[in-house]
Amino acid sequence: MIYADYAASAPMSEGALAVLSETARNLYGNPSSLHTAGQEAREAVEKARQQCADLIGASPGEIIFTSGGTESDNLALRGSGRRRLIVSAIEHPAVLRTAEDLAAHGTMLTVLPVNEKGAVSPDDLEAALGESDVPALVSVMFANNETGMIQPVSRLAETAHRHGALFHCDAVQGTGHVPVDVKSLGCDLLSVSAHKLHGPKGVGLLYVRRGVTPDPVLTGGGQEHGLRSGTECVPLIAAFGEACREAGEVMAEEAVRIARLRDRIEEELLKLPDVRRNGEGDRLPGISNLSFGGVGGEALTLMCDLRGLAVSSGSACHAGDERPSHVLGAMNVPARYLTSALRISVGRFTSDEEAAGIVRCVAESVEMLRDMA
Ligand SMILES: Cc1ncc(COP(=O)(O)O)c(C=O)c1O
After folding, report:
1. Which of 5, 205, 262, 285 gives a 20 to 30 Å CA spacing to 348?
2. Same structural domain for residues 348 and 200?
3. Atom 15 of ligand 1, residue of closest alpha carbon
4. Which of the four pLDDT bands, split at 50, 70 and 90, describes residue 373?
5. Residues 85 and 67 reside in one and the same domain
6. What is the number of the ligand 1 atom nearest to the C-alpha of 72?
7. With 50 as the cut, is the pLDDT of residue 132 above it?
8. CATH no. for residue 329?
């Protein structure tokens, strides 16, 4: 099997796996307990907090551990207490659905468009912010999970701040793969998820800039500065820390190698007839979104799987109901290519041979499906 769905979840690194199992076996104390077993667990949590903070240029006191990207996004949006929300049309459902839920309960919601390349414009944000004096929270992602398009976050954050708004960035895609620095981006809040950077599933963080004081979503024992009650999952957090440490170490080299693999895959597949690349400009190294005219994205995903390749359809598909992707829709992708998208995402463990195998498998699958049509 060739795995080319890193944007959905990346395989855990050996280092993170080792820390996960050692910590689960040995550090079973509750980090809030005063005894030695508790304090050893606390040390592991604080070490991980430092490692995670280092990766994104934060201070350890600004890191709140959560159960993952979805919870971090919820804490940022629900906890901000702002009566006005501005989000982009291409956000992950963890932001979009949360924003819609808040809007259903009285929050003013503005959804910003993107251009055909898939980027949010600071001018559109400027115009939206000028429409009302109600203090807003702006939430725009670092990079899109379907196309890999990197957003002009520092300019957007600067625009938000000029209007007295807070700025949240969902950096679940991108962190650990390219530099994400909270200070140079200018974010007040930023979400990260461990399983996208070779850590375990079920753990993430919300960066909360010193001085920003969101309300908790989960109340209880007051862990994580009162922002996320619940006993810390020490093994997941420790493994997340190790994954962040490793990512910081290999990122510069890996980003170049992975971008080269992606470019080679795209170059070959773009030679096929009636293919379109979705997303142009500044992109993450590992994600490629291609539409193959006349071929259903879901059918193509299944055909690739039958032939031993794990990729994903660019559209948000539900069983038997192939709905066009809201991301490609927002980019005004022509109807013919809306439901024929494939997301190929490669990463740290993808080899040159596998890249060649991906090209072969996708090309053959497209040809077979076109022959069957
Ligand atoms: C951009 C983005 N935000 C949020 C999430 C949700 O993260 P998690 O799976 O950790 O809840 C994902 C996961 O696919 C994502 O790609």
Report:
1. 205
2. no
3. 172
4. confident
5. yes
6. 11
7. yes
8. 3.90.1150.10
- State the distance from the centre of ligand 1 to the C-alpha of 79, rounded, in angstroms: 18
CATH number at residue 225: 3.40.640.10
User: Active-site residue numbers?
Assistant: 317
**pLDDT surpassing 90 at residue 34:** yes
Q: Whose CA is nearest to atom 16 of ligand 1?
A: 145
What is the atom index within ligand 1 of the atom nearest the CA of 202? 10
Q: Do 75 and 160 belong together in one domain?
A: yes
pTM over cut 0.90 = yes
The domain boundary, picked from 228, 247, 266, lies at: 247
Structural domain that includes position 116: 14-247
Residues 100, 211, 103, CA angle at the centre, nearest 5°? 10
Give the pocket of ligand 1 (CB within 6 Å).
68-70, 73, 92, 94, 141, 145, 170, 172-173, 193, 204
SS (H, E, C) 89-126: CCCCHHHHHHHHHHHHCCCEEEEECCCCCCCCCHHHHH
**Closest-lying ligand 1 atom to the alpha carbon of residue 195:** 10
Q: Whose CA is nearest to atom 8 of ligand 1?
A: 69
